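Re-running DUF7151 domain-containing protein to confirm reproducibility after the cluster update. Everything else is unchanged from the original entry.
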Amino acid sequence: MRRMWMAVLVLATGCDGIDLEQLVRQHPPLTRLDPEPAGANCVHGGHFVRTGLDRNDNGALDDDEVTRAEYACVTSIPGVLVRVQDEPAGANCTEGGKVYRAGQDTNGNGELDDSEVSRQVYGCASSGAVVTRVRPREPFIFPCGEQGAVVEAGQDQDGDGVLDDAEVRATANLCVLPSEVLLRQSPAPAGAACPTPSTQVDVGTDADADGVFEGEEVMSSMFVCQPLHTLDGNYHVRNAVDLVALEGISRIRGNLLFAAGTATEAVLPDLMLVEGALEVIETSLERLELPSLRLVRGPLLVSQNAALSTLSLGNGSHAPLWVRGDFSLVSNPLLSTLAGVSAVSPANSLFLKDNDALDGGYFTYVAGHPGDITVEDNAALSTLPFRHLEWLGGSLTIRGNSALGSLSGTVLQTVVGDLVIEDNAALSGLWGMPALTSIGGALSVSDNGNLRSVEGMDALTQVGTLEVNRNAVLEAAGAFPKLERVTSGMHFRGNALLKDLWGLERVRNTGVLYIGENPRLSRLMGLDRLRTLTTLTVENNASLTDLSDLVLLHSVEDLMVLSNENLQRLDLNALEDVGRYFVVTENPRLPTCLAVSLATRVGPGETPEIRGNDSSAVCE
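Result of re-run:
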């Protein structure tokens, strides 16, 4: 105890006469607020907040007295606040960045207290050189034909000097040999292509062979956007606090999911890159806007959002939104236009399904699409929204769109897969695709209740399979004046009013020919140039009396004539060979002796099956 008092005495009476009151007095804490405009630190503006102790007691917080600095940002949602602070390089952000803390202002004091913070997000800085690669394009892929090059660019995130698949951010297709491609990089300011500074990659060839890559030789320019703040991992948005905590993020290295919750509006003006899936499923959102979005590396799904009426993804008038997976717009009953998603350019399949009010807008950058496109059950849709689509590498399915009166809305020339036109109640013909020349798979026209004609595809020269089935008021099914090649076969089934097949005169050979359940079909006119088939099946056509219009048919593998109640003659006079099955059954007015005579002449490989025909009739 004595030593303690001696210490106090020395402090109080030291040789220099120290002022005890000055020594023990606390310096007052001060806060300094400066307006912060909307920008990188605060999306919607706010204040730059500096705090510290007034160590020189001059009543002002000097710069060297600041111990803490952060941004107090206003948000687009009343009652929700966000604080933004610099994050030094370390465990949370390797290269430093910012930390966003958001929450409800529950005590109403206009400040976000520590106890009110409910979501914290780190937006990390990232760097990396832009690297490129050039590879051959698959032959005969639109628009290059036999030769072409794919040029890709992106940020070298792992620093290995090689552009990996996961690092690709921009792609260009050139119709030149890969060895001819030249590249040039230059910095580009923020603008329409990228909302932040970026690297511009010009690609082209030395067209004049002078050894200099000149401006007029540039064939395409790509932009690799520089993200400002990156969030590592997946992120779920369920409420307003989750949303505002994300407002300063420009890249998400993971999935972004808008799930069921209380938020009715979501606007993220800075978000450019989602390096996983982007899903908006069963939300309460009425409005979703991501105007700076340029890349979604996984699928993009907007589905079952009952109140969503405004959807804006990317900037359709200036730059594409590359989606490396599928794009699906499904069951959004109030969404009336595609104008807000016109920038979307998916690498895989594109689905528009069950959007009751949708009728407007189109996909600006979908011209040569490698995957499937499905347009199904969109009750108000009156035209197809693919104004620049020329080539489709997959299948196009147009099904159940009750207001679709024509197939207009594309400039299609080639469909590599199937073209399915099914159950479109207002469709009366196949007008709208006058440039379509080739369908690699099936042209399937089925269950269209008001289809009266198949006219409209006057340029079509080849299909894999032609299928015209169950169109209730269709009278003529052969109006394809240039169709010459049908590789797999033709099927005409269940068309209640079908009377003729006139218009298929150019088809000489095919696989299967199936004609069944067409009660008004009395002649096979239009098929009179057919020479060879693998299978001929004529089944249950109540008005058909003979097969004489198949006047040039000389060989089939299988012949099936079944249950045609008024068939009286076969008259396949040119037929010379049936390779395997010969089946003529249950044709009550066809003399059995005619079937036996034909079987004897063509010599089928298997024992003929002839029964249920008119055995009492006499053949001359």
